[in-house]
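step 4 of 6: structure.
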Amino acid sequence: MKTSRFATFLLVLYGLLILGFLYLPLVSVGLASISKARYLSFPIRKYAYGWYEEALTSDTVRDLLVVSLKVAGVVTILSMIIGFFGALAFARYNWRFRKTYQKLILLPIFFPQTVLGLALLMWFNALGIIPSWKTAIVAHLVWIAPIATLVVSIRAFSFDAALEEAARDMGANQWQTLREVTIPLLMPGVTSAGLFAFLLSWGNFPLSLFSTGADSTLPEWLFAKMVSGYSPLVPTVGTLTVATSAILVILALLLAWAIRKLRPAT
Amino acid sequence: MQRRDARLGLLYSAPLSLFLLLTFLAPILLVAAFSTMPEKVFNLSQAPDFSAYRTVLAQGYWKSVAWSLFMALAATLILLVVCWPLAYGMAKVFKRFTLVLTIGVVMTLFVSENIRLFGWVLTLMKGGLIEGYWRHWTGTGFDAPLYNGPIIVFGLVYVYLPFMLFPLAQGISMVPDDARQAAYDLGATRWQILREIDLPLAMPGIMVGSLLTFVLAAGAMAESKLLGGRAIITIADEVQTAFTYGQNWPLGAALAMVLIAIIGTVAIWAISKADLDKMMGGKS
């Protein structure tokens, strides 16, 4: 029962339509960012790149960028470490509460993020911690560390336990086994998890909203500007943040492709 | 070896478990404690009187709850229909195009929800991408289809599409080709194959996708704020308002507990059914 050529064609067309549907709003944002007019109206009559110059030289944008990068950077490193160990417990070792652990760490992923942000704000307040970009790291990690764990787990499931055994039989101690066998084998998973963590933290708004205190991340600033009336800087800065993510993903894909190409040769 | 496994498993699970205990469980318990306090207090020193819950019942907040659940359900059902053909194509028909679609769809997840919804505002508003060009070419304009109920459901469908698509594709890929072929050889129509073979055998994927979409959409509020102009106020929005403008932490906490109870029940029920070893590792 093979799908006919015509049906395949229709399905591909449908897939392209869905992709178009997903990317259409980003096209609008991109076009709006190069419109010269202060009040946007399509069709665009005059194109200009002045808003980019203004965005890139603006002190506000630079401060936002620094906060966003600091948060995403620390979240990335911590997610990779937590995710590495979390995934070994998730997928590799058989221990008593493994099934329960597997299920419990999924709960934060389903949790409404705004409510989580507010709950954390109350919690920090109760502990006497003043919210800043550091507390935002904690808020992001509640959601991102479980996702990173899942990403590494996919790799850890295909882990051959015999390799660790072999290392141990040949006299390696626990630390040596971890360093020489486990870490290199899981590294591709850990790298993917780091990429996911960075991108998810970089684009997150609802968790940052209540956890950053006086500091502000790029998505937070964008939202505040969006609801307080149109500013030409919104599509411009929006396009820049999207472009940053896109470039990172493309670099990662190219790197993965290059490694796969080179490996048989060595 | 088994004892080493047991020890290492427990040891390695500790960082994540302890972290979530302190930053996920503890804050939820704190919210639960606050929800029992008299209204408008900012500490836990008062005697609990559960008055916030009475306010929740008396002030018509159930409408926001009902609307949120209804819109989440509508978005889930629409997504089931919209994603099915594409998920089928990804699982059974496409070869390289599956990879293109996967990367293309995953990449949208990394773009802030705000920016994507704002993009829809620019696309749909009067003088936006669609209306602007339409008027340019035909000379007649039309009103923006923004700031109403249906556009909120549209926003939910847009934002949560990946969460339905991927589980569905995973579910359909588990339907054996032999079973479909056998039904076809025995004279089943396409409709019969869909109803008797595809739907029952892909049920795990359908359930995971639907529950994931429903739970996330029920707790959403950006769609209502940015696209819907708050034509319908969602429960998550009510929680935020009570905490911020309302300065009424116990009321916000009580509303949050209602949302947590609904989402928690659905999520825990769904998660308890899933066998993660089988889903992720292919082991049984």
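step 5 of 6: annotate
 - The mean pLDDT of chain B is 86.
 - The CA atoms of residues 180 and 197 of chain B lie 7 Å apart.
step 6 of 6: archive
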